[in-house]
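User: Could you go from structure to sequence for me? I need the amino acid at each position, not a summary. Structure tokens:
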């Protein structure tokens, strides 16, 4: 009898403990899914005002969560934004942080603190699925036929399933953990920046065979009827079709979610939509009036819907924080003749903002930014300033992880703002950059925006809705409250504000960090 009582007591204690752990886990350690679009502008979604297309799944995410009007990525090209998202450090501080070439070595050194290593330490299963574009391998670059490391697995991810660069660059193969998937050793993969043989077919020699013609660059090795940046041979069994990328990544992501449904997980779903070459699956081709650029947005919306329904099916929605963001603003002709500009009509891809990809005007970095956590984030539109670079420090705060002073140097803990807590403030200032260390910066502080162009030119103004290089003064000042399109430089009217912001920007760059140290807090 006594034994029975003891075993009942044990039973109830365990049940209580399980209950407590589940509640605690739900509150402090939700699953985290970051969905990053590629080259998506502020105005590219129907929940951000687009009328030329409809994005019901992303709209639903926004309607049930916080939709930010001042959500940013930290750079207006891919590699530096992704570097900053993962490391929480501005990319202009790092080496080789400009757009990565096909044979780039790993840009983030093994052991660097990242959003993934923070969450791994907090007990999460971590994965990146999709576009990487942060280099792979040691100083000599990727060993395509051997172990591809260091890479994501050396900076906190347990698992990766990658497009190694970006799909307008070679090679078109998947990397699973440390290996090229389905690589036949009898057909080794070679990747280089020089033509491997005089008769190697290219977008120049075989232009009439292409299914999508190039407009600038992108005229080297041909795969799937599309010529790319860079050359490659071999690895034929490993090559994918562009049309299948989205389906493959959704399937792999759902598998990852299913496998880890019992423990907290972090999934970085890194879409290639709507980067060039825009080749959505056949079932999405022609779905919008905007050409393949619009069709790729609809494809990404479908991906988001699939991920959300997997979470719902597994009863994980209420315990999952989803962040939707983009890696830089929009571009029309980025090297292929896909009619993006011709079919644009009245669609404003950057919304009310000037510039786009490659630009430090708002259109380059102010992009869709949505957070959703049903039951925890109250539906709202938030005007707080938040940035992809802040996710690292914010998830550290959420999961109770301490950051060393020399980690995540520019990541601000804006968790309250990300969760839409009333009264919680976002950033006081944010530095925007274009690419690598090219010397074009924007500093947003409140409603003021200072631009600094060290070269005196910038690819920044929308001319006939396309980007063009223009001569600009080294410094410009705008007031975003009454001039969101940054059309009226008011530097001469407000010299004292311009001076203060110039000094603030110079100090942020010179100090090597902007996140306060533990002692300063
Ligand atoms: C540019 C490419 C562009 C795109 C970009 C990277 C040319 C002329 N332009 O150099 O097509 O690949 O790099 O885009 O080659 S990103 O979104 O990955 O940063
Ligand atoms: Ca991009």
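Assistant: Here is the amino acid at each position, in order:
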């Amino acid at each position: 009898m006594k034994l029975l009582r003891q075993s009942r007591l044990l039973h109830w204690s365990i049940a209580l403990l399980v209950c407590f752990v589940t509640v605690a886990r739900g509150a402090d350690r939700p699953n985290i899914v970051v969905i990053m679009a590629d080259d998506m502008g502020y105005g590219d979604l129907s929940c951000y005002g687009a009328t030329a297309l409809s994005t019901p799944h992303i709209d639903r995410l926004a309607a049930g969560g916080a939709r930010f009007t001042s959500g940013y990525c930290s750079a207006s090209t891919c590699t530096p934004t992704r570097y900053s998202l993962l490391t929480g450090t501005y990319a202009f501080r790092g080496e080789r942080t400009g757009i990565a070439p096909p044979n780039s070595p790993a840009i983030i050194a093994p052991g660097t603190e990242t959003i993934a290593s923070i969450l791994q330490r907090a007990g999460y299963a971590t994965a990146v699925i999709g576009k990487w574009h942060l280099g792979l391998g040691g100083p000599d670059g990727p060993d395509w036929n051997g172990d591809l490391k260091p890479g994501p697995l050396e900076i906190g991810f347990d698992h990766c399933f990658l497009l190694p660069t970006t799909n307008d660059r070679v090679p078109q193969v998947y990397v699973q953990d440390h290996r090229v998937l389905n690589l036949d050793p009898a057909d080794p993969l070679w990747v280089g920046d020089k033509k491997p043989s005089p008769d190697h077919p290219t977008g120049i020699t075989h232009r009439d065979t292409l299914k999508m013609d190039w407009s600038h660059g992108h005229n080297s090795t041909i795969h799937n009827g599309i010529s790319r940046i860079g050359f490659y041979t071999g690895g034929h069994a490993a090559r994918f079709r562009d049309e299948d990328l989205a389906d493959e990544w959704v399937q792999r992501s759902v598998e990852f979610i299913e496998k880890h449904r019992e423990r907290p997980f972090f999934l970085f779903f890194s879409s290639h939509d709507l980067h060039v070459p825009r080749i959505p699956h056949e079932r999405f081709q022609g779905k919008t009036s905007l050409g393949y650029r619009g069709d790729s947005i609809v494809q990404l919306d479908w991906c988001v819907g699939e991920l959300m329904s997997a979470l719902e099916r597994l009863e994980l929605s209420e315990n999952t924080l989803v962040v939707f963001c983009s890696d830089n603003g929009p571009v029309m002709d980025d090297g292929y003749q896909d009619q993006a500009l011709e079919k644009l009509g009245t669609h404003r891809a950057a919304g009310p903002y000037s510039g786009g990809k490659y630009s430090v005007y708002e259109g380059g970095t102010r992009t869709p930014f949505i957070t959703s956590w049903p039951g925890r984030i109250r539906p709202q539109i938030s005007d707080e300033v938040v940035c992809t670079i802040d996710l690292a420090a914010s998830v550290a705060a959420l999961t109770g992880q301490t950051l060393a002073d020399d980690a995540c140097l520019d990541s601000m803990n804006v968790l309250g703002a990300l969760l839409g807590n009333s009264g919680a403030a976002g950033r006081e200032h944010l530095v925007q950059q274009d690419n690598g260390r090219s010397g074009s910066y924007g500093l947003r502080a409140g409603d003021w925006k200072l631009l600094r162009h060290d070269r005196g030119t910038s690819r920044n103004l929308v001319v006939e809705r396309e980007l063009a290089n223009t001569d600009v003064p080294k410094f410009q000042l705008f007031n975003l409250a009454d001039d969101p399109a940054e059309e009226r430089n008011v530097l001469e009217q407000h010299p004292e504000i311009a001076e203060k912001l110039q000094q603030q920007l110079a100090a942020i760059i010179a100090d090597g960090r902007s996140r306060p140290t533990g002692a300063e807090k």
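One structural detail worth keeping in mind: The radius of gyration is 23 Å.
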